[in-house]
Structures are given as C-alpha cells and as structure tokens.
Amino acid sequence: MITLKSEREIQAMEESGAILAGIHEELRGFIKPGLTTMEINNFVQARIEAAGAICEQIGFEGYEYATCTSVNDEICHGFPGKYVLKDGDLIKVDTVVNYNGAMSDSCWSYAVGEATPVVKHLMEVTEKALYLGIEQAKAGNRVGDIGHAIQTYVESEGFSVVREFIGHGIGPTMHESPSIPHYGDAGKGLRLKEGMTITIEPMVNTGAWKSKMDDNGWTARTKDGGLSCQFEHTIAITKEGARVLTQQK
C-alpha cells in the first residue's frame, strides 16, 4: 500500500533526515585508511543513539547491524566487520534512522584516502545520476521517468545500472510501495502523486550490472568483480517538486 504523507509527516521525516545527513557529513572526515568497517558501523550507531533516534536496520529481517558497509565490488548489504580500509578503496555506508517514528534512509559513497581516477569518475557519475533521477520525481510524472533519466545518463558514461536492487517507498515503515527502479522507459509505470515519500538510490557498476550473492545471504557483489557505487536520498513529492529530506550541507 502506498501512503501519502501530510506536511506534518514530511516535516517529521525531514527532522529524521537531518540527523542522518549530519552523520554522513561527519563520515567525510572520519573515514580513512586503517579503520575497520565495524569501527565505521559503531561510529554511526553511536551518533544515531546520541540523537535520541533508533537504528532501524538492527533487527530488520534478522539483520544485526546499524549500517551496511559495502566495499569495492560489494554492491549493497555488506556486513561491517574486521576488514581494514586501505588507500584507494570505495566504501558505501547505508543506514536508516527512526526518529520519533519518522523514517529516513540514505547511502553515501566515500573514497578512502586518495581516490583512483576510476573511483573518482564512478562516484561523480553515480551522484549526478541520483540528482537526475530526483529532477524527474514530481507529481504527474511516472516512475519510469526516474529510471530512464538515470539509466540513459549512466550508460552514456560507459557504466551499468544494477537491476536487482531498487528504490522504494518509505514511512511509516522502512520498505513500502512503490518500487523505484533505476532503469526503464520514460512515460511508463506508476504515476507519482503529491505526498509520496520514496528513496532514489542508483547503484552503478564499472562493468556489467549483474550481481551474485555471498554465502551470508545478504551481501550482493558484482558478478564480474567490477567496482560498484551508490548514492541515495529520501525524498518527498510536493507541489514544488522533489524535496530532499536527507540533504547534506
């Protein structure tokens, strides 16, 4: 079921999103070579709890951690652990904040130490693709308009868009309808309405888009070993267009 949010509910989600955005801003200076992915997870969890919020991912379908920390060829749902970050790595940190019942969801990618030219280009393309998708997220447009804008740009840069993992509705629970693919045909799919709150979260690979699953049943990685990057915002569809609820400074 798709829930349409009131202005009051959107404002509450924006408060939640401000907590999450602030954590991503802090991670810019925190992430460096020598840290383990578990240290990043613990940093994020401490910040969420200090804000009086809940780490919504913990316990979701049995997931045990406050974050997903996906490195290099890991597309998404990487488990934080003992892996030590090294110079040139690409890490994606994804988390969901529940603040007084209001949800926000955002993943951001970080170059560890000095970014290689490939990592830098991949990050630039993926972030731009996110915002091209957001531009299409307005009442009257269709879900396919978002995916088409993202796919067309990404493929023009020689990269591919992951198909198996997509954006979604959010609030009052973490994952709701509608599904938001990052590929597709313009003018097709569900029509967007004022009051919808969704995530747009393109995952972009240097190689082919197909993935494979680790034995843990959660972590997806590129089938060909290529790098993968992701940027994600939670947004609301309003009269004025897309309103980013997890906007960083």
Automatic annotation (TrEMBL):
Peptidase M24 domain mapped to chain residues: 12-239
The keyword NADP is annotated on this UniProt entry: no
Molecular function via GO: initiator methionyl aminopeptidase activity; metal ion binding; metalloaminopeptidase activity
Record GO cellular component, one term: cytosol
Catalytic activity: Release of N-terminal amino acids, preferentially methionine, from peptides and arylamides
Source organism superkingdom: Bacteria
InterPro entries per UniProt: Creatinase/aminopeptidase-like, Pept_M24, Pept_M24_MAP, Pept_M24A_MAP1
GO biological process, one term: proteolysis
Cofactor: Co(2+); Zn(2+); Mn(2+); Fe(2+)
Positions contributing to a divalent metal cation 2 binding: 105, 168, 201, 232
Residue sites binding substrate per the record: 77, 175
Cofactor stoichiometry and binding remark: Binds 2 divalent metal cations per subunit. Has a high-affinity and a low affinity metal-binding site. The true nature of the physiological cofactor is under debate. The enzyme is active with cobalt, zinc, manganese or divalent iron ions. Most likely, methionine aminopeptidases function as mononuclear Fe(2+)-metalloproteases under physiological conditions, and the catalytically relevant metal-binding site has been assigned to the histidine-containing high-affinity site.
EC numbers for this chain: 3.4.11.18
Binding site for a divalent metal cation 1: 94, 105, 232
Keywords noted in UniProt: Aminopeptidase, Hydrolase, Metal-binding, Protease
Function comment: Removes the N-terminal methionine from nascent proteins. The N-terminal methionine is often cleaved when the second residue in the primary sequence is small and uncharged (Met-Ala-, Cys, Gly, Pro, Ser, Thr, or Val). Requires deformylation of the N(alpha)-formylated initiator methionine before it can be hydrolyzed.
Matching PANTHER family: METHIONINE AMINOPEPTIDASE (PTHR43330:SF17)
Family: Belongs to the peptidase M24A family. Methionine aminopeptidase type 1 subfamily.
Protein name: Methionine aminopeptidase
Organism: Trichococcus shcherbakoviae subsp. psychrophilus
